[in-house]
């Protein structure tokens, strides 16, 4: 790559990194910035008269175990996807 291309890419990366910090400087979650859809959805559900139509079969005893199970599920999924991508790539190299 030419050095001018690298300089342009570096400037673009710096602008992409700095722009949100400048635009939202001093604003936070209290002002409505950086709020997630989970927060908005839970507020809507709590403000209505919604009644759940089912209950969980098993509730994890703590938040840490819930996080562990979520991470385990993500790891198993990543292993399966990685296996199939590796298998697919290996099949392409044999031919």
Please describe what this structure looks like.
The protein has three helices and no strands. By secondary structure, the protein is mostly helical. The model has no long low-confidence stretch (mean pLDDT 85).
Quaternary state reads single chain
Instruction: Give the helix proportion (percent range).
Output: 55-70%
Give the structural class. mainly alpha
Please report the total strand number as a whole number.
0
In the predicted model, the low-confidence regions spanning at least 5 consecutive residues are none
Q: Estimate what percentage of residues fall within beta strands.
A: under 5%
Average per-residue pLDDT, rounded, comes to 85
What is the terminal separation in angstroms? 32 Å
The succession of helices and strands, N to C, reads HHH
The biggest sheet, with number of strands, parallel, antiparallel or mixed sense and barrel status, is:
none
Separate helix tally: 3
Question: Looking at the structure, what is the overall shape?
Answer: flat
Computed Rg: 23 Å
